[in-house]
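stuck on this fold:
=====
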Amino acid sequence: MLQEQQTNKLNNQKIILVMSLNIKPIGDRVVVEAAPAETKTASGIYIPETAQEKPQHGTIVAVGPGRYADSTGNLIPLTVKAGDKVLYGKFAGQEVTIEGKDYLIMRESDIYIVL
């Protein structure tokens, strides 16, 4: 079941919606909702679905607890959190469908930057 959290910034009336899933990834894995593929070029030409490139950015919707250090056994928490917009590798993650929506499950190390 999807849950929505709504935050209202009073200074510019911007509303931010953060989607979170009722699932918990294991270890250092995260669940990412990929951004929609571009359907139109900057000059206004529509791109057919077969020619659209796979997006390389999205929003994190769920994170695992972290990974355990090999030498000490201490838990190393993840540096990303739900709601972060991230840039990841072109072939990163495993595509899955949860409750009718497509997501990517990947390790935190597959994420390049937080936007």
